[in-house]
Specification:
Elements: H1 2-32, E1 36-43, E2 47-54, E3 58-65, E4 71-75, E5 79-80, E6 83-88, E7 99-104, E8 110-111, E9 123-126, E10 134-135, E11 157-159, E12 168-175, E13 178-180, E14 189-196, E15 201-202, E16 214-217, E17 224-225, E18 238-240, E19 247-248, E20 254-259, E21 275-280, E22 284-287, H2 292-300, E23 304-306
Parallel strand pairs: 3-6, 4-7, 6-8, 7-9, 8-10, 10-11, 11-13, 12-14, 14-16, 15-17, 16-18, 17-19, 18-22, 22-23
Antiparallel strand pairs: 1-2, 2-3, 5-6, 20-21
């Protein structure tokens, strides 16, 4: 009798506990749910937008440009029909030859994958009060007319792979407000670069094939320069490497070239495979005596000079 009563009480207790657990889980699911209810496309006089309506919010993103002729100044508005515009969608202006200057509104949080790739964009206006947090892979890939002169206005931002390939960036300073990854500045047209981050490594291919001439690694926490980080940087003249660096990948500073066999008419002869060559950088390493960077330079036959001479 007593055992049966204990069994009933225990069963009731487990049922109440399990029911409570299910209620909490259901509340959490409902609370986090933001299911898309509807998507629709709308236009204004210059742009095409996709509006997304969810259970909790409504927002729009730019998905295309509809001008027939060159638009010398294209303003991306903050709202369309009262709906906030929060992003420039993937490929929105890809291969677009009818844009010159684009003014990015302060509501834009993301510039999508290949958003402006291979377009005629020449200038982009980004205000100090901007909300941009993501510049996705290839966002400005091969925008060879573009010069971004307000890089300092970008903060707390993630930069995707080859986001600025063949884009003129001039002199840039990278600190902890930038999160860059493998190939972020691959092929970018950079004059000078100062790296002042608290991370422990410079990512693989981060500046590969860029036109950077001078590199100042200021962060005293940097320990590793990864594979191909500066490979193909044929214009690199000097780099300052702090004592904190204790590993540099073998090909981090390789100059990689590809040669082709040509026909008599000057065109590439496709019957033959391209010839790949590699050589070591002609840049000068500036570092302290006895440092890992000095040993690396000596082993690779790279010219090396005292740390302080970098600033002369």
């Amino acid at each position: 009798m007593v055992e049966g009563l204990l069994t009933i009480i225990l069963s009731l207790g487990l049922f109440v506990w399990f029911s409570s657990l299910l209620e909490k889980k259901a509340y959490k699911l409902n609370n986090n749910s933001n299911r898309v209810i509807e998507r629709k496309v709308i236009l204004d006089s210059h742009l095409k937008y996709e509006v997304e309506i969810t259970e909790k919010e409504i927002y729009a993103k730019v998905i295309g440009h509809i001008d027939f002729d060159m638009n010398p100044l294209l303003n991306i508005p903050e709202r369309i029909n009262g709906i906030p515009i929060v992003s420039i969608g993937d490929g929105a202006f890809e291969n677009d030859n009818n844009i010159d200057t684009v003014n990015i509104s302060n509501t834009i949080e993301e510039i999508g994958t290949r958003a402006f790739a291979n377009s005629s964009i020449r200038k982009i206006i980004i205000n100090e009060e901007n909300s941009i947090r993501i510049i996705a892979d290839g966002a400005f890939y091969w925008c060879k007319n573009l010069y971004i002169d307000m890089f300092c206005n970008l903060h707390n931002i993630y930069i995707g792979r080859e986001a600025f390939n063949y884009v003129k960036l001039g002199d840039i300073v990278l600190n902890d407000t930038y999160e860059f990854t493998c190939g972020s500045f691959k092929g970018a047209l950079i004059d000078s670069l100062k790296i002042d981050i608290s991370g422990e490594e410079l990512p693989k291919e981060a500046f590969m094939f860029s036109s950077v001439k001078s590199v100042h690694i200021n962060g005293q926490t940097i320990k590793k320069i990864c594979s191909d980080c500066f490979s193909g940087c044929s214009k690199l003249e000097k780099i300052l490497i702090p004592d904190s660096v204790n590993y540099i990948d073998d090909d981090a500073f390789e100059i990689k070239e590809t040669a082709f066999v040509h026909r008599k008419d000057g065109e590439i002869d496709l019957r033959y495979n391209p010839i790949h060559r590699s050589s070591i950088t002609k840049a000068i390493f500036y570092c302290n005596a006895g440092s890992y960077a000095q040993s690396y330079a000596q082993n690779k036959k790279i010219k090396c000079r005292p740390y302080g001479e970098f600033f002369q």
